[in-house]
Amino acid sequence: MALRQETEQAGITLNYPAHHGVRLARMQRLLRLLVACILAVVVPSMFGYAAADASTVTATGKASGSSSTAASRTTSRQKDSTISMSIDSATPVVTASSGYHLQLTLRNTSSVATGDGTVTVAANALYTFVSRTDIQDWAQGQSRIPMNNQLAQVDVGSIAAHGTTTVTVDIDASAAQLAAITSWGPKPVRISYASASGSASASLHTFLTRSTDGLTTANTPAMNITVVQPLSTTAWQSNTTIVSNIVNAEHAWLNSSSIVRAVFTGTDASKRERAESQLLTKHAKLQVVADPMYLQSMSIPAQASAISQPGMFDITGYAALNTPAAYQSAGVNTTDWNASASMAAYRSAVGSTNATHDIIAWQGSGRWTSQALNTAREQGYSTVIATSGYDAGSSGTVHTGKYVVSTDFGDVTVLAAQQELTGLAQGKATSSEADSETSDAGRLSRFVAQSAFYQMEQPYTSRNLLVCLKSGASTALIDTLMSAIEQSTWLNLTDLNTLIASDAYASGADAASLVPQSSGLSEAARKRLEAALSTFAASARSLSQFKEHILYANSTSSPSASATASTSNSGDEQSLARHDATKVAENNAKGPSTWMNCLASLHSRMGVLALSGNAAVIQRMGDAATGLSSTLLNNVSITQTDTVTVVSETASLPVTVTNANPYPVRVRVSSLTDSMEIVTSRYADVTVPARGEAQVTFTIRVATSGSTSVHLTLLDRKGSGFSSAQTTTITSSLQISDKTGIAFIGVAFLLGVLGLWRQFHRKKDPDE
Questions:
Q1: Residue ranges of region Disordered (predicted)?
Q2: Cβ contacts of residue 228 below 8 Å, gap of 6+?
């Protein structure tokens, strides 16, 4: 270490493996590597970068595209270049027989053609990365490592304005360029493009990782690595046909199986399931934590290493919001997503009431804080997977991703993902300046190089790193990643049980001190969850309103039962008839309850899926839940009433109420006019049979001629409005010739005659 520090202070980079036990052997290797480094630095500076024989390289460039203005080779300035490069594919692990194969896409973003140019691929076969900073600096183009070994040089034709070109490099396994790599591990590779005119240039900084295959160097113990794929989907949508059957109380559909099928995973589900099954068959060591609700939707449930919480419900988001009442108001209770619910869904999926499986809660949009771990443990989850939040920004050497944390309800085992490798596996660059990590192939090359560096960092320390893939990731991408790991001789793929059984990196107070202090819930994630809660709370209120104050569950009479009882003659027949009538009445009484329970369960299932926090699922499930409750309420409606013409002081206004639901309802109809002179009676109560209609009559009273609007509204039994209001018109035409007018005239005439008679027959006073 002293030698390394002294040479680094002197500006010399030591290229030596960070291992081997005997001090003398270590010093000998250091000296040999020191000499090699001096030669690598001094010789190129005297004679320029050496170009290796490229005669064995098969290189082709196919152009269809354009050109640019001057651009810098550095990453920071490359962003302004009119030429951009990306890696389409690259050999992630170079073995004795693999060769090295690379495909690039060059894009000309300018409006001028580039003219002819050249792509050069160069490496440093002797270089060994000595620190995390060293490897990151190279990825960001901030390290001046000499590229002594030219791997290939390809002529590129002119790229048209706004066009692209594809460049392919194929280096045979026996090529001298690859034979120059005599030690295993990651090597720096620079890919550069320059137009012949010098007007356009660009570069990428990537890695070539040599395995120990075919090399004579001593092998060290492989580092354990566990790769986990969450098996879930964001393609959830409502099956409108099945939902309609449930709403219509089709008895064949009032069961748990129908509720499961009422929400399905999209039209391409079979194709996706087949690809996932093939992937798991090909890569047996790929660990799968499956959403049991997703397994329920599969025709043949996939094999899983463990199951997660139902619907990937966001437990960390639930803990961060800390509003359990809001979830209850939305119709989603803890019994819908706890460990017991997970096991029940799994048993339903595999068709066995005795089936059992390991249950591991997957991290949601927040972090596994103490509160989140408390919540998970209280709901029966003793093991959780943390995809982020643990070891964030840690500069220490990598270690086993296992912590044992104490909670109010018992210990929780936290399986924490290794951040850099997990980020790369999930499609995230290590930084915005890492120029080659803008593509899957570029990130895969970095993943392999980074994992090799971690093993070289502490080759004799037993560790097990957890890598978490992304839900819904392309099966082709996972296949490529797993194939690369399987070829990485420095890695040993293990299963979840091995990781769980390994020694914890920290436990007790030490583990508690490493638990994230803040939830890390983004404002966007918070708003998504709150929007889902708001939507489902509204639909839950509508379901409750219908069940408690509209549905007329007390109407249990059965015409068929009554008829049977009345036509029976003998005592035995009458007894049997009474039994049948009672049974029918019981079934009728249970009918509305069973129906509403199915609707509530369906609503809760939609809510659990929406509260996974995915924006698209929230939208689709929210629309489905709103449609479910709206259908029930709108199935009870007022039939449009024709305009009423009144020619007397009083008249009748008939109103028909229709019920399209499968059970009777009892409601109140409200009638209110816009006039003080033309009015109706205020309310009328009505019981409407299942899939039928009933009529109520309002009394109209008129005091003058004219017209007014009458507003007809449906109210539940508590007086709250629902369904669509109707408006009709009442027109009054009081005429003098009608019976009322004649009566008025007759009375006036009699009063006039009586007045005249009294005038002529009264006795005069003496004073008159």
A1: 60-83, 557-588
A2: 287, 288, 289, 305, 385, 466, 467, 468, 469, 496
